[in-house]
Input
Amino acid sequence: MEVRINYLLQQFTAGQLNQAEKQELLALAEGNSSLVSDEIVQMIIAEEGNADVVIDKKWNPILNKILAVDKPTRTPRRILMSRLRWAAAAVVFVVFSFTSYISLTKKKEHVFATDVLPGKNKAVLTLANGKKISLSDAMNGDIAKEAGLSITKTANGQLVYNVAESKNIDDTRLNTISTPNGGEWQIRLPDGSTVWLNAASSIQYSLNIGTAKQRIVKLDGEAYFEVAKNAAHPFIVETDNQSVEVLGTHFNINSYHDEIVTKTTLLEGSVRVLHHSSNQSEILKPGEQSIVSASGINIKGVDVDEAIAWKNGYFMFNNEKQESILRKVARWYNVEIEYADPAAKEVMYYGTVSRFEKISKVLTKFEQTGEVRFDIKGNKLIVYKE
Output
């Protein structure tokens, strides 16, 4: 994220921010002001190798015009960092002031006649015997009992498996937890691993996963995993076109059927990604993402915050096409997308938006690029190219 902030600040000081980037910088300044100010400090220190001179010659004229402050006199090195922090805070203020001016001068904001609420905690547990339990409707406490174990729903909505006699558990019996469009859920598996399921996703696992030689789960959709370490019992996530094997780590997998690739992003530890068709395998390091397609596996470095933004309550887009963005919006808000103009699919967007706003707030952010416009008709979102 620091690299992106640095790029935006450089564009800002050069007067080359486009509309989408202005909105992105404002969102970052609002939600990550300390990161923004720290990056400004590093920019000041790096420029010309003399931070004191740079503050006097470059930043103070800008800050004085906006904040009407007295120009600081040259100070000893021990006071320099406090002045840098002052300058950084002031530049963040400049960002707010500049973007506010843009907001006031742009065309009148679109008012939507109807709106759509965001998704929420919603999932269904399908037991091995076929019984279905709505987890969002179930009362806290024991919600199911099978041979050798009980399943409890906690006050914060997690499922906890309590295994009484593992020898009595039939390893062929499977449980499935699935989320609909507009739903998400957090699960603690019987082996102690924690899984966050995104909208329109499901995970399937055996009841003896805590003691099985291989802890195998089947994923459809997107999930973030924090796997309990157990070197003797590797944890394997199966999707349609890949397998991911770990011992204990944190990672995210995006494997929706309407996406042409499967993405695995590693935050901590190490995982091995195996391509089912070609048998190609690659080891990921933290900060890397594997992209599995029909042609094989490609590895690249990524901003992991973007990959797990959904888990933290945000949509985060980094030069992403509108078509890809709206697939995510459709899953979370349970809406159907219709393009009045196919060219709108190609619009690129940078930005960070809360997933817990009504859909109109999210769409307004996109409309501020000046390149797209939306209408909401019932459960349908219609997209126009401006």
User: Anything to note?
Assistant: Confidence is low (pLDDT under 50) at residues 48-59, 61-86, 93-106.
